[in-house]
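One-letter codes give the sequence; the fold follows as tokens. Both lines appear below.
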Amino acid sequence: MNWAKITVTTSQEASEAVANFLLELNATGVEFKETAPSTVNLIAYYPLNDRVGGRMQRLRNFLSELPTWGISPHPARIDLQPVKSEDWEEAWKAAFPPQRIGKQILITPTWSNTPHNETDVVIRLDPGMAFGTGQHPTTRLSLKLLEDAIEPHYRVADIGTGSGILTIAAVKLGAQRVDAIELDPTAIPVAAANFEANSVAGKVRLSQGDGLKDVEGKYHLIIGNILTKVVLPIIPYCAPRLHEAGTVIFSGILDTELGQVESVLEANQLRRLQVVRETEDDLTWVGIKAVSESAAAL
């Protein structure tokens, strides 16, 4: 079979929405490749047939609509390239082997029968389903911090849940309840399917919303793997929504943006406890864990 390789060059801000739309067009998978701090290439594969032209037009229309939702897709370039490979699908699968993160977490594609230990926290997700399948440094940083922070009785808020990977991990690590919140409507069915596939749906409340504005109650842990421009306006809502010894974890932050995030945390009575870093393609990403000032003083 011949394949059509569609590459969309767009902003980090728009990348999740575009990736989910590519999947709605029945892409076999979506690969993320960062080209600069603010842009990313999204590579999707489709059978090379007479439906490709229609998919390209729908994609152009989708990109043109994003600004009406307050999302800039710039530079919004689309490239189409035919790929001749009978073995492409198996080669693509081989590029995404199971991976271990932290002490216990094992992320494995659904097609893989990966041997694992009884103590492993196994998360089954296929790459390209939505942002957050363990293939990006920010997801790995979030999972490492989450693994060390979670306690069995915790109520957790996962802001910008995407694929739902952090929610799945939180439940499997022992969280009592997770509010999984996602602004992008195209990601909601993906997350819901992943919660069912990983048998955690009974402990998850999935909702479409803007951060913590539309959910109630207090949390032991608030986590978000989202871009800095989204993190900053969310921070002021965190302290009032945390239990006395509550924790926040944020990733999606470039090392060059860390100082700005720390300043906003401090201005909102949240003190940094830990920063972790990972560098990929000459970009250094950070994850940060902070607690309320009262908890830090204990």
User: Anything to note?
Assistant: The chain has nine helices and 14 strands.
